[in-house]
Write a structure and sequence with these properties.
With 176 residues, this protein is mainly α. The chain has two domains: 1-101, Multidrug-efflux Transporter Regulator, Chain: A, Domain 2; 127-135 and 148-176, no CATH class. It has helices at 11-18, 22-31, 49-64, 69-79, 81-89, 92-104, 152-175, and strands at 9-10, 38-39, 45-47. Helix 4 (69-79) crosses helix 5. The chain is globular. Keywords: DNA-binding. Residues 103-122, 127-151 are annotated as: Disordered.
Length: 176
Amino acid sequence: MDKSPDAFRTISEVAEDLDLPQHVLRFWETRFNHIKPMKRGGGRRYYRPQDVDLIKGIKHMLYEQGYTIKGVQKLLRENGVGFLTAIGAGDLAAAEAITMRKQAAPQPAPAPRGNDDEMLVGEPKAKPSRRFFGLGRQGDDGPATGDDKLSRDNRALLQEALFDLLECKRLLDQVR
């Protein structure tokens, strides 16, 4: 029996529908404070239809458009939740209208920001070399060229590994 489009979804249903592991959805809740599923007794999550559309929009920007988590956070700050929800729902006209309204509105002075190269879990002591990611020859840490960029599959694998490591860190922090 299929659920109504307006019905709430469990984390397993959302994960299956979007082809994402459940731990990725939990991780995204920590990085995107706009994802707030309703929680019942025992911590069971129930996602509203607009939560699912927002997650679809986030997934699209991360996996298909190549944005970083910080980049998607910036999109949310600049364009609001409605923008990514519209993208997730497939309503590109609404997303375009939101973008046009934002461009037409007067822009406040930007707040001071940190370094865009910061890592998710804090300031890096040293940036990994391009060789670390298999990009470039030994001793070549110069700028990327078209041939040595990460493929979408490799980027997805690295992103998945990062999610797993962050989930492990979260679990270790709970034990301490």
